[in-house]
Amino acid sequence: MFKLIRDLAPPETRDRGINPVRVAKAVAWSFFGVRASNGLDSDTAAITPLQAIAVGVMGAGALVVTLLTIVQIVVS
Fold it and tell me: For the segment 25-52, what is each residue's pLDDT rounded down to a tens digit?
């Protein structure tokens, strides 16, 4: 999945070697709404919007599945 995202990124950002874990951490901090300004500046310079959107959708899906699983366990 990340290879597809990297291939769709603009050519000037492909060679940066963005770590998928770094993208996931940046999106996770965004979910909580807490981020230091120096970390935010470095993330916005390195992460493309397509990467952030893809990881955000996957993170939201994981959150929904987790909540549904918890509700299913509590109800049954």
Answer: 888 888 777 777 777 778 878 888 898 8
Q: Flag whether the pTM goes above 0.85.
A: no
- Taking the C-alpha atoms of residue 56 and residue 50, their distance in angstroms, rounded to an integer, is 10
Whole-angstrom distance, CA of residue 72 vs CA of residue 66:
10
Residue 22's Cβ-count burial label (10 Å; 0-12, 13-18, 19+) is middle
CA distance 31 to 21: 15
The answer to whether 16 and 42 are in contact (CB under 8 A) is no
